Amino acid sequence: MKRFEKIRSLRGEITVPPDKSVTHRGFLLSLMAEGVSYVSNPLLSRDTLSTLSAVEMLGGEVTKNADCFKIKSPGFRCFKEPSDIIDCGNSGTTARLITGVLAPQGKFFVLTGDDSLKKRPMDRVVDPLSWMGAKIYGREDNRLLPLAVTPARMFSADIKAAVKSAQVKSAVLLAASQIDGKSSYTETTPTRNHSEIMLRQFGCDLTVKNNIITVHGGGKLSPSKVRVPGDFSSSAFFLAAALMFENSEILIRNVGLNATRTGLLDVLKSFGVKFDVDLKNSEDGEPFGDISIKSQNVQGGKISGDIIANVIDEIPAIAALGLFADKPVEIRDAGELRVKESDRISALVCNLRSLGAEVQEFDDGLKISPLESVNMKAELKSFDDHRIAMVNILLSKRFGNLPIDDIACVDVSFPEFLQNIEKLEVTSC
Ligand SMILES: O=C(O)C1=C[C@@H](OP(=O)(O)O)[C@@H](O)[C@H](O)C1
Ligand SMILES: C=C(OP(=O)(O)O)C(=O)O
Fold first, then answer.
1. Which CATH fold topology does 20-227 show?
2. pTM for this entry
3. Fewest C-beta atoms under 10 Å: which of 10, 162, 182, 334?
4. Which positions in this protein are listed as binding 3-phosphoshikimate (predicted)?
5. Calpha distance 350→336 (Å, rounded)
6. What is the complex's ipTM, to 2 decimals?
7. 237, 317 contact by CB (below 8 A)
């Protein structure tokens, strides 16, 4: 059990860790392009290290310098067929994107993951890749890891999104970029577009018109230099903290501000919250800048529809804000939360109810009423899920000494989370 002393305020400035999604893609695109690419300021967390180790198994030569990784690769026509399984650990992004990268290779690969990942659906990538000719087999009718990706002749195709998922879109685009001919992917709801940005940066002929992404595949990718901005999803815990701890003032520096990721800022605005954004770079690649926020009232409200895909990883932090809002916070159309590292809807319902809040659970979300009085006997559970653990740490520090069963899993996306919080802590008024 882990407990934390009560903290009054969080004040000062921080730099959040580098973006997890961009780091995964930087490592994978560097493997796909023949020659030497560089990924500077990569995130080194459990998830991204799973991708990096897969890159090495597949023939990428990685030279790790302080802040810049050099990756030399024979390119996507010449991947090594590893003699062992590729372990994607806890990382859905690794498993799903790599399936797309490997399906057109004409070689044999086996992918697996940890106990959590082995329960998460993989048919969402197996199905569209199979429509493009891939031959991929897995447990439970090709739904679950381990997956065997076997030699197949793939062809270009027009795929329509069946799930609102950037991982599925990316798996299809990464495969399509290797297959001769014109493929397209049509989204019903926009999802994070890091793969589109980076594929273009590596020389892929990719265009986006409205909700249709078109790839003319089969050409060589050119090596490139990727600079990873701060992770907006990690910054969400600090944006929420500023609103949970009285008299707080936090400046978050150099965080990614790609509009397909920053829906939380729109949600906060709709809850009546004010903050400042200083956009520093929006020219090419990924935009980034600084965000500053102070303690203030949170009105609360309902979020649903298209915004959900944009804020999917921020929902644990948004749900926790429901405890401190003037009126309930209701989150709907978020059934995807049930297939993350844990079932995040039931994890949040369990913890917020244990604190004494009135919480309604729906198949596709939850509604949290403002907390009237906290149950100091509450025990918080992390369900081996990094984002649930980070919310629990904030709640334990906010109310003081509430026990949490485990917090080790924060290393999946934010290994230095505690140290970053501690830098900002003010214990007295
Ligand atoms: O593409 C990505 O990097 C990610 C996409 C999202 O998953 P889905 O595509 O399953 O929504 C997100 O939850 C995950 O943390 C990272
Ligand atoms: C869902 C997440 O990641 P992944 O799907 O890559 O495991 C996350 O980081 O919240």
1. UDP-n-acetylglucosamine1-carboxyvinyl-transferase; Chain (3.65.10)
2. 0.98
3. 162
4. 20-21, 25, 165, 167, 313, 340
5. 18
6. 0.99
7. yes
